[in-house]
């Protein structure tokens, strides 16, 4: 059961690159999501496939998330299970389909005006995952509730 969260998260992250609006040249994306210099902070003791480093909340319980032409960055946020996290979304790309963020399981949809922070607070259960994505179902990302240590 403990292994499941690693697997689910890795699957969610691989889909991120798929969300563009067709005629989008890749010029504005210097940091390709496919090649993160993963610092291997998590799970280094096990031979898991290298997942991009997950973001964790700051001292105020917030995580800043950028909505770019390619998706949401970071696309995986890890929280202590049962603890609320404030996701602060800022869309920085004018041409992107990430003009809104949707949390299907929570029935939440928030518009993301350009360069305007939009806060969404969620509380994943320990061992649970709350998915978020663009309104078309792309840019799949997740907030993961870690089991209490
Ligand atoms: Cu989309």
TrEMBL record:
InterPro entries assigned: Cupredoxin, EfeO_Cupredoxin
Keywords per UniProt: Signal
Species of origin: Vulgatibacter incomptus
Ranges where the EfeO-type cupredoxin-like domain occurs: 57-139
Signal peptide region: 1-28
Any Pfam family: Cupredoxin_1
Protein's name in the database: EfeO-type cupredoxin-like domain-containing protein
Top-rank lineage group of the source organism: Bacteria
